Amino acid sequence: MDADPIARSYALLERLVFGDALQRARITYLATAVGPEKKQALLVGDGDGRFLEALLRHAPGLTIDYVEPSGQMIALARKRVPGAAAARVRFH
Question: In the sheet that 63-67 helps form, which strands lie side by side, from edge to edge?
Fold first, then answer.
């Protein structure tokens, strides 16, 4: 699926339809799923990077391969990565 056409409005559409339920679901088990012993993660199809942003905050030692077919979604996700964390994320 090509998400480029809806990328810019995806977060707004998601909030209008689901409120914050999807984001809460994304991060509900973050603390138990990613402990300090984890060094690498693979995110596939995360869209605009809201989960990526939470994961970077939760696990400061983690390096992440971020796979997303939409170039527009990757651009949005990149904006969510703070400068110091940019070296920890490889976008594909």
Answer: 40-44, 63-67, 89-91
